[in-house]
């Protein structure tokens, strides 16, 4: 039975007239045949070399496994800073004539907008928005509001931990990245709305990797020997690394370390008391729904321009349940 995914649909209906595809696209896409006629969907992610993107990959592949006649191929560059590699993958996919539709998570939305300009191949953006007419739908988390929700929860947790002066510093991903900017805005919004002080001028950019988060956390502790109430991180790998770096520093004993993504390692770190909380995206649901949306568009069905797959806050109270769910996706 097809897996049912709860999503929040926003925006107005977009009528997709997608009978044609670029290049020598397969006849199924040109003639508007159903998926049973055989569709090839390529999914290009930020990378496939991380746990989070592994869930997106698993969701995309699950749709193909559950729907006869839909072939799903998932690829991605070596890392989330391999911009040229991803651009080459996109160019090759568009020019190959082998695919009926693309699902794409853009590392550089501006570059991707240029690369896809003029194509008639149905393209669904997943995880990261691309402002281009060629994108028929965006499937993912509303990053700003999700980050704001996490920040508000972090302020509440900081107060419960005894902090009176609630300051927050963010350890961010690559500077200039659209998703990074959205989460930055959300973290700031949530902290300030909840009565905390977001130290905007002290954001540490760490390219979404743990090693740089360690360096960033060391700098924060040096600059704030008195402690900081909340450390907000662009992803869980950085939150875990920052928390472990601060372990043993009494000034940071009650600091709230809030990550983003809600991956297995985060759940485990929350259960062991290292990371405090995480903003969990439905990465599996993103992958599944993005491919489903692409297939609907190819077959001439109306699709929503924005499909928000939502978020949840993982804490010590629900981390085990969330962990069990994630393990089931990759089983």
Concise summary:
Helix content is 41%, strand content 18%.
Low-confidence stretches: 1-36
| Biggest β-sheet description | 7 strands, mixed
Query: How would you write the strand order of the largest sheet?
Result: 1-13-6-5-4-2-3
Number of strands: 14
Distinct helical segment count: 11
| Rg on CA atoms, Å | 21 Å
The percent of residues in helical segments reads 40-55%
H/E topology pattern: EHEHEHEHEEHEHEEHEHEHEHEEH
N-to-C CA distance: 17 Å
Structural class: alpha/beta
How much of the sequence lies in strands comes to 15-25%
Average of the residue pLDDT scores: 89
Described by the principal axes of the CA atoms, the overall outline is elongated
Entry keywords:
seven-stranded mixed sheet; 11 helices; 18% strand; 331 residues; 14 strands; alpha/beta
Structure, described:
This protein has 11 helices and 14 strands. It has helices at about 25-30, 50-65, 85-95, 110-115, 145-160, 180-195, 210-225, 235-245, 265-270, 285-300, 320-330, and strands spanning about 10, 40-45, 70-75, 100-105, 125, 135-140, 165-170, 195-200, 205, 230-235, 255-260, 275-280, 305-310, 310-315. The strands form 2 sheets. It has a 7-stranded mixed sheet, sandwiched between helices. Strands 7, 8, 9, 10, 11, 12 and 14 form a 7-stranded mixed sheet that branches. Helix 6 (about 180-195) links the parallel strand 7 and strand 8. Helix 2 (about 50-65) packs across helix 10, helix 3 (about 85-95) packs parallel to helix 4 (about 110-115) and helix 9 (about 265-270) runs antiparallel to helix 11 (about 320-330). The protein is elongated and about 60 Å long.
